[in-house]
Amino acid sequence: MPDLMTLMEVGGPLAAVGGGAAYLRAEQPAAYWSMVGLPLSTARLLGSYTSVMDACGLTVAPSRLRALAVRATTRREVRAVPPRRGIIRPTSTGMRIRLRLAPGQEPADVAASAERLRHAWGVHAVYVSVVKPGVVELRLVGFDVLRKVRMPRKTSGGFLKVPVALREDATAFVRDYRAIPHQLTLGAPLSGKSMYLRHLIAGLAPQPVALVGIDCKRGVELAPFTARLSALATDPGQAAELLPVLVRLMEERYDLIKTRQGIARSTPDEEITSDIWGLPDAERPVPVVLFVDEVAELFLVATKKDEERRDEMVTHLIRLAQLGRAAGIYLEVCGQRFGAELGKGATMLRAQLTGRVCHRVNDEASAKMALGDIAPEAVGAACAIVPDRPGLAVAGDTSGGWTRIRTPYLSLADAATVCDTSAHLVPDLPTLEPFRPATQPHRPDLLTKLRPVTG
Ligand SMILES: Nc1ncnc2c1ncn2[C@@H]1O[C@H](COP(=O)(O)OP(=O)(O)OP(=O)(O)O)[C@@H](O)[C@H]1O
Ligand SMILES: [Mg+2]
């Protein structure tokens, strides 16, 4: 009986601690990481650093001087030397550590061992980035940060930069319009494309930017944001009227830049500009971001009569994509598929859209449309996205690489509220005035009720 009591006294609390830890790990991975994962992984890393580096082939033979010094001062055998390690910097999702590469090593050598390092130190993933020549940073991620997305507190947002999603290495994925002017976002139904657009609209709404929407689903995706939109087209007919107006706006802006260059014949070279960003603040026109949801709708025609209108629209879109950047006009195009089968102009327009984000797709061909020209492994990764994680996507990187990203959940009501509160920021653009949607008072109660069930 006393044995049973002792067992209960010791085993009870132990079982409770174990159960608590398991619950924490499953439900609150960030808290689990801070309390349990971080100390364990740090201890593993410190205790096994040299042997793990050796096992991964990341050590080099010691210099002759070092070998002599070791032999002279100790009786130990002279061991191979791992890359010199900086201090461990813990973060809320993992930890960072800098390594100085040994002579003859390159960052790819460390990157090739990332999978082995993650197993050795018991973390979810290890990413390698180059800090400067000879120095790499290992970013150890403690848990799957894309399961429950929480954006980092410090993000590099700013004018025309929207931290829209979280990367798998726990850094923010920033949509930077000045670095990547136009983007294509593809994905199957319910994969999270409109959520991605919603984040961009909510992120741009408080900035001095004109937001223009073409939503051929009769406006169901973009209509809740009417308060902040400078123009909205909800069917291909309206889009056909809106697009030439945007092209004219772009041409006017080119004329403005040209006038400035004309005046400035005698002025120093650095004051001559070829885009709106070189104009003085007072003269610079406001940037325009054009959101197109379900782009294929603009390409599809039912009758021969519509064909002419379609060709015109596609030509206008291609011109905007080709010349818009310098005039401060940016495209954000969304669709389920965007291939050559949509007809004349589709591949040409796609080629102009530098940024690529591919959500879950139904077939490999769709993923290839978005990412095929970036990296074959990115196509494979997009095809592997499971339906129970809406918002998960593969994003092409400017560096030519790719990364998995996921948007946080943002309700339609919250995004609409951001638009309502920033309605006074709608810039004065008389040419777009006829397309300005009538603002209906937004009904958060209704939007909440209409919110679809999430996976
Ligand atoms: N990051 C996310 N986290 C949680 N739920 C999400 C996320 N992204 C999207 N969802 C949910 O997934 C569902 C589909 O999202 P969304 O409407 O953005 O898909 P879509 O690709 O635009 O679909 P469609 O092609 O039918 O318009 C919605 O219920 C949305 O709330
Ligand atoms: Mg949608």
Structural description of this entry:
The chain is of the alpha/beta class. The protein has 2 domains: 28-141, Threonyl-tRNA Synthetase, Chain A, domain 2; 161-449, P-loop containing nucleotide triphosphate hydrolases (Rossmann fold), CATH 3.40.50. It has 14 helices and 15 strands. It has helices at residues 2-27, 29-55, 64-73, 107-112, 114-121, 193-204, 236-263, 296-299, 304-323, 346-352, 364-371, 376-383, 412-421, 444-450; strands spanning 84-85, 89-90, 94-100, 125-132, 135-141, 161-167, 172-176, 183-186, 210-215, 229-233, 288-293, 329-335, 355-359, 392-396, 402-406. The strands form 2 sheets. A 10-stranded mixed sheet has the order 7-6-15-14-13-8-12-11-9-10. Helix 9 runs parallel beside helix 10 (346-352). Bound molecules: adenosine-5'-triphosphate and magnesium ion. Magnesium ion (MG) binds next to helix 6.
Key structural traits:
Threonyl-tRNA Synthetase, Chain A, domain 2, 2 domains, binds magnesium ion, 455 residues, binds adenosine-5'-triphosphate, elongated, disordered C terminus, alpha/beta, Rossmann fold, 40% helix
